[in-house]
Amino acid sequence: MLQPRIPVNPLPTGIVTPLVQPTAPTTAVEPMPCSHDHTTAPVPVTTPRTTVQLTPGSAIALAAGGGAVVLVVGAVLVSMLLAVAITGVSVALIAVVLRLLVRDMNKGR
After folding, report:
1. Residue 33: is its pLDDT beyond 90?
2. Residue 93: band (very low, low, confident or very high) from pLDDT cuts 50, 70, 90
3. Cβ neighbours for 100, distance < 8 A, ≥ 6 positions apart
4. Alpha-carbon gap, residue 109 to 102, rounded angstroms
5. Distance separating alpha carbons of residues 75 and 79, to the nearest angstrom
6. pTM to 2 decimals?
7. How many Å from the N-terminal Cα to the C-terminal Cα in the chain?
8. Which of 29, 35, 83, 104 is the 20 to 30 Å CA partner of 90?
9. What is the CA radius of gyration of the chain?
10. Could you write out the DSSP letters of every residue in the chain?
């Protein structure tokens, strides 16, 4: 009455697995000896991967590309440092001018 019912699911191959119902206990069946070989199949040998071989032309191109990258990154970093330095000098100059103006206002001129 309260036994779970499992639906029959079709496999991707189209074979339908039927629902197995419990049956009366059966007697033990002895396995029959077989005549085929049970050894494992040989594993295929994989070849080692080849390393990347650079020709003189490709080595020069790689070095030139690396040098170009270093130059571009260096130019960007130097320009950022220059921008920070200019900003710092500008803020210091504004602070000096404001201090002089406040001092002049305090003297009553």
Report:
1. no
2. very high
3. none
4. 11
5. 6
6. 0.43
7. 107
8. 104
9. 42
10. -----PPP-B-TTSPBPPPPPP-------PPPP--S--PPPPPPPPPPPPPP---HHHHHHHHHHHHHHHHHHHHHHHHHHHHHHHHHHHHHHHHHHHHHHHHHHHHT-
